[in-house]
Amino acid sequence: MDEPTLKQIAEDLGLPLGKVRKAVELLEEGNTIPFIARYRKEATGTLDETQLRAIEDALERAAALAARKETVLKTIGEQGQLTDALRKEIQQCADLRTLEAIYLPYKPKRRTRATIARQRGLQPLADLITSQRKLGRSKQDVLAAFIDADKEVPDGQSALAGALDIVAEQWSEDPQTRTWLADQATKFGKVISVVKRGKKNVEGAEKFDQYFERQESVKRIPGHRLLAMLRGSAEGVLRLGVEIEGDRELRDLKRKLLHNRDFEFAGELEGCVEDCYQRLLMPATESSVLAELKERADAEAIEVFGKNLHELLMAPPAGPRVTIGIDPGFRTGCKVAVVDGTGKFLQHATVYPTPPKSDTKAAADTLLALIRKHNVELIAIGNGTASRETDAFVSALIRDHKLNITKATVSESGASIYSASDVAIKEFPDLDITVRGAISIARRLQDPLAELVKTDPKSIGVGQYQHDVNQTQLRKCLDRTVESCVNQVGVDLNMASVSLLSHVAGIGPKLAERIVDYRDNHGRFANRSELTAVPKLGKKAFQQAAGFLRIRGGDQPLDQSAVHPESYPLVRRIAKHLKSDVSAIIGNPQLCQKVRPEDFADQTFGVVTVQDILAELAKPGRDPRSEFRAVKFDDAINEIGDVKPNMVLEGVVTNVTHFGAFVDLGVHQDGLIHISQLSDQFVSDPNAIVSVGDVVKVKVLEVDVARKRISLTRKF
């Protein structure tokens, strides 16, 4: 990467140039961001994962800008219009939006009124009028030279109209004018939303009723409201636009463009300014402003999605205990699946404790038999249809038989997508899709991260307008979030699925399949070094992945920790200094505290790295996720009609948006804590107050059964 670009990135991100330069070098060498963030802290000056991602994004933008510049220079050059000044302006351009504005006058166009006029030979007349120099002859004499019936210019008025079309287009394509008007619209404009004629009462229109006649300041409109309006527009219900008062802008535009009131065509040019403003500039400004607002709203929504997904993936695991998963249902019954502590499928059944059969005795007998046969410790109940009825049945079963079992409700979002996926079919080719769903529900309770990585994140239901935002940017954010979570937690090499392994730094789907195939054919990995025997897993992949892979009970005790194999010699030096062995140091914080990091820092391992290694040795393989706690729904509340104002209930946060947080109360309809009801203090970001997966106490403010809306508060 060239030095000017590095300097620009460092300046834009507010980071020291040296740190940026080293991070870029590491990225260009093929290192992954999780690896750099954890194992190359000295090199980058302890840049964290967020800062490294920002540098990576800046590199991508710089590469895209450079590629676009080449295309623009080539296109203008082929037209024979590339002057030295224009080349310099393009080469010095620092952002894509400005580059496109410079390129606009030279961009190949569809057939416009101006292009037709040029084809009729009226460009010289347009140039003459644009100059606004005193002509010293009549308008008729000037126009007469351009009358040509063969070119469809039958008279002077036609010639003038065509020339003015060219002038209007040229004015509208001036980068400075477009930037100025867009700035005016951003500062003083309004986003206008109105219902289209005849669409007010069509099916689905009620979703947008608050936008049937609405105005929002361009500079203040919240992203989630803009996305709602855009969805209404896309569905043909709303008409969306950007308006500014216009009088001041039009006056300023005339002062800018009209500089000779004595010019023979001054009156016609004034009308041309008005035409340019109304017909060309304002529509272009409206598109530009809406596009910029959409880009900003997308970024906000994607950020919300990423934060929520992170919290969901990092939800506390119930742990490796034998678990029953129940996918509730009414007519078709409840599908039950038992998995062992590793998530291995053991047995399945179907029970009918809910209407219309309500065969609670047979269901209880079946469940008790499974519990006793497999020593079940956990029961996970999906939160979909018949969830509360099934939950009540299981609660009674546990109570009546005094069972030492933990029961929890688990989100089913995306479970049906997983159940029908190629991953699920490959895992359980002989099982019904509904049984696969019950297995997934059980595994979600045991280890949410390990199970949820098998499902497309967009299907998990923690986003805000996820189908309306830029899908490329959304996918990038979600992939990064999954990668970050997986590598933050670490992966058990001898238990992980292909889906989980594929997100480990340096591995990917193909290598993950080879690792699992090798494990299936050769048995458990005894140590990390054995990974190099996996076909096509080279030194670079091993370097990037090894520190994030764990081996429990192997022949190298350090393999169960996040200490990277490249640091094993350092650990042996520390053990020798302590007159101990490596096994005795691991998990012994008192022993680790006797080591001064400065005494072991050298050219290979800096103080920060030694500190990290000692911290890991003190608590090896520590799970960064918090302790599991099951939410306790009110047994008397089963459907939205049971919810009444002033009730105080316990629920779990399922989604956090910029306008508040949604809470599952166990009634098949999430309630909303508006941002104004999250705290007694002012809240600017709901994510600072609550996260997906949090168990919260809330008070009911209002219930609208018909519209399925529950308003909640934490201010009580």
Shape: globular
Q: What Rg do the Cα atoms give?
A: 33 Å
Mean pLDDT: 94
Outline the biggest β-sheet: 5 strands, mixed
Unreliable stretches covering 5 or more consecutive residues: none
- The termini sit apart by 56 Å
Strand content: 5-15%
Give a description of the structure:
With 716 residues, the protein is an alpha/beta fold. Helix content is 47%, strand content 12%. The chain is built from 29 helices and 15 strands. Strands 6-5-4-7-8 form a five-stranded mixed β-sheet, with helices on both faces. A five-stranded mixed β-barrel has the order 11-12-13-15-14. A three-stranded antiparallel β-sheet has the order 2-1-3. Strand 11 (648-657) and strand 12 (660-664) form a beta hairpin. Helix 8 crosses helix 11 (156-172), helix 12 crosses helix 15 and helix 13 (223-234) crosses helix 15. The two termini are 56 Å apart.
Topology of helices and strands:
Blueprint: H1 3-13, H2 17-28, H3 33-39, H4 41-44, H5 49-78, H6 84-91, H7 96-103, H8 113-119, H9 123-131, H10 139-144, H11 156-172, H12 175-188, E1 190-195, E2 213-217, H13 223-234, E3 238-243, H14 247-257, H15 266-313, E4 323-327, E5 334-339, E6 345-351, H16 360-374, E7 378-382, H17 387-400, E8 406-410, H18 415-419, H19 422-427, H20 433-446, H21 448-452, H22 471-489, E9 491-492, H23 498-501, H24 508-522, H25 539-545, E10 549-550, H26 568-577, H27 582-585, H28 589-592, H29 607-618, E11 648-657, E12 660-664, E13 671-674, E14 695-704, E15 709-713
Parallel strand pairs: 4-7, 7-8, 9-10, 13-15
Antiparallel strand pairs: 1-2, 1-3, 4-5, 5-6, 11-12, 11-14, 12-13, 14-15
Helix pairs in contact: 1-2, 1-5, 2-5, 8-11, 9-11, 11-15, 12-15, 13-15, 14-15, 15-22
